[in-house]
Amino acid sequence: LDALVFDATAGLSADALGAASGALRGGGVLLLILPAAKNPPDSLFLHRFRQQLQRAAVPFLGPDTAVSSWPVPRDRPPPDPTGDPCLTEDQRDAVQAVRDLAEGRAAPVLVITADRGRGKTAALGIAAARLMTASRPDGEGVHIGVAAPRLSALGPLFERARGLLPPVAVHEPGRLRLGASTLQYVPPDGVPDPVPDLMLVDEAAGIPMQW
Predict the structure, then answer these.
(1) Which residue(s) pair with 147 in the sheet?
(2) Is residue 181 within 8 Å of residue 170, measured between CB atoms?
(3) C-alpha to C-alpha distance for 175 and 144, rounded to whole angstroms
(4) Looking at the whole model, is its pTM more than 0.70?
(5) Distance between CA atoms of residues 108 and 197, nearest Å
(6) What distance in Å separates the CA atoms of residue 206 and residue 127, rounded to the nearest whole number?
């Protein structure tokens, strides 16, 4: 997204705000609508949140604030002429690490950690698309499973992968197919079919440990 309006007048969920802000492009604008401040505050969380925003020099627009005093949004970074879909060096490193894992050039387990909004889910989608389009010596496709607490959480991953695949790729709910290669959602309590060559787990903190 280039701009996001987040209405928190009925209550602010930190998890929802963190997840939503991760959909913004670099240089995008987030407009957060908060309820009017009260003295004494009716919510200590919101009071503390406002203080932190002010310390971070986040501009506030109130009844007496002139819109012209708002800062001009930063320009979006220019597109990479090489066609590289990664937006940061960290994301590029993550994509390469997933490919090294899948192609047997690294240890069989990889853990990726970063703050919300740093592009972890998109990196998995980019890596999956590159693996699906890469030619294999045996001529067979690659089967990639991806688990998450719920399918809706993987929308950005599937959209990122779909956007990098050729138009002939077949898109179904929770599944992408390109020739013999597949990218398929696996519920936490489900059994992958076919057995994946690579298993990705997104939002792992939301999946029960016994899985």
Answers:
(1) 186, 201
(2) no
(3) 10
(4) no
(5) 11
(6) 22
Provide the CB-side half-sphere exposure for 47 (13 A, CA).
7
Measure the CA angle with vertex 10, ends 5 and 15; round to 5°: 65
DSSP letter (8 states) at residue 68: G
Say if strands 170-172 and 175-178 run parallel, antiparallel, or are unpaired.
antiparallel
CA distance 121 to 98: 12
Predicted confidence (pLDDT) at residue 128 exceeds the cutoff of 90 = yes
**H helices present in 56-201, as ranges:** 89-102, 120-133, 155-164
Using CA atoms in the order 127, 129, 133, 139, what is the torsion angle rounded to 10 degrees?
80
| pLDDT at res. 99 | 92
Listed residue (181, 198, 93) closest to 146, CA to CA: 198
Rounded CA-CA distance 124/133 in Å is 14
Give the pLDDT confidence score for residue 38 in this predicted structure. 83
Contact 149, 211 (CB under 8 A): no
Closest CA to 128 of 186, 190, 182: 182
Which residue type, as a one-letter code, is found at position 147? A
